């Protein structure tokens, strides 16, 4: 009896191993094929992208709050964990129902194929090939390995004269299974490795194209930052956010690596009498402008980190549109929405009036004195001061279409966000941090405030329920940038609540009313609780 149990347990564990190897083979072959078809057509990226598209807004906001820029990594890890669990289950099931297990692998390949071909950036039926090829490879591996686990079963002949049902006794082809499993593992590793190498080669070409970029001196340089714009307060956000610290919020599971030498931008649509197709070099040959502009993500909670200030270098978008014959609605133009499309299929809609009203709306090529990092849109992205990123800051842009708000709903609008979203007047306490325990005496309270395209006029701080005290403002570098502020506070022992509010240059005071990020950005006053010792 004990021997039989051991024999039964061995195939169950090996069935799970067979499923794991089948899953590995499927992913490896899909990785290899997607390197030839299109990296975004791989099953993990395609299914992950489909999951992001269908995730409720509240869940997306939760993921951004809790995981920040690592939310994509968490999603990919989750997908791989689910696939691994299902592979184990299919392998065990295939021991008894061989065809069912194999069919299960093919079904998951079909799911990946459907996800790939229905993505916004899909290139047609060819995008189904990686998932289908991977599924066929995985199914073949599972079929072969399970066959080795069942091929050696022996039939016990009935004894005596009575008719009895033949009895199956455990047994399996150990040598054949080891050989087949080893071959599958080695082949999968080779296919996956080759796929990575091929994808890496394309990424290297993109990186090389970025390294070769030498941004010309801007014809319209940024105004020098006033000496008093940078307060020397420990813990306050720097006036210029370094590139590696600048927030990144998007839906791209894998950051697109676009080769600048093959990149093209098409401008077309309603009211465009002279459509344009531009290369990266075409933009470099134009007059470049340099501006300090603060960007804000609509997913930024009150007091949140998804805001940053950088020096952007690029081409005036309004001039390009004018060359194409486009006009703002206030000047009789038929289009009121500019739809920007990214290489990953993302669509963002901006008001044409805002883009062409004289503000420094840019097709940006540089960020803080260097070509755009890949994370932030290389080779080209949009930057429009005064608008939240989801209606203006298209990264990896490749297409601009002029249309109307009635005719087309971009990605985020279809998911319940606003069509128009100017940045709200906001302020944040950077120091002291929440739940800090400063020493009694003078404590410097400091932070940043922003109201892009309007500018900050005043910042006030309140301690507990006391009167509002006017903070010292750093020198203004421009109405499109945030402004640092500070207030020396004579802190007394005990628990205290510090609250901040800002007033912009239109006289609008930051509202106390708390709202969520959906549909057009969070509002409310930022507060921190500290305990003075």
Summarize the structure.
The protein has 533 residues and is α+β, with helices and mostly antiparallel strands. It has helices spanning 2-37, 43-54, 57-67, 71-96, 98-117, 129-150, 174-211, 280-284, 317-323, 352-355, and strands spanning 154-156, 167-169, 264-269, 276-279, 289-296, 307-316, 337-342, 347-351, 362-367, 370-371, 381-383, 397-403, 426-431, 441-450, 456-463, 469-470, 472-473, 483-491, 494-504, 526-532.
Number of strands: 20
Average pLDDT over all residues: 92
Class per helix and strand makeup: alpha+beta
How would a crystallographer describe the biggest sheet?
Answer: 5 strands, mixed
Uncertain parts? 1-8, 154-161, 165-169
Number of helices: 10
Give the overall shape. globular
What is the element string, with H for helices and E for strands? HHHHHHEEHEEHEEHEEHEEEEEEEEEEEE
Strand order of the largest sheet: 4-3-12-7-8
Share of helical residues: 25-40%
List the helices and strands and how they pair.
Elements: H1 2-37, H2 43-54, H3 57-67, H4 71-96, H5 98-117, H6 129-150, E1 154-156, E2 167-169, H7 174-211, E3 264-269, E4 276-279, H8 280-284, E5 289-296, E6 307-316, H9 317-323, E7 337-342, E8 347-351, H10 352-355, E9 362-367, E10 370-371, E11 381-383, E12 397-403, E13 426-431, E14 441-450, E15 456-463, E16 469-470, E17 472-473, E18 483-491, E19 494-504, E20 526-532
Parallel strand pairs: 3-12
Antiparallel strand pairs: 1-2, 3-4, 5-6, 6-9, 7-8, 7-12, 9-10, 9-11, 13-14, 14-18, 15-16, 15-19, 17-18, 19-20
Helix pairs in contact: 1-4, 1-6, 1-7, 2-4, 2-5, 4-5, 5-6, 6-7
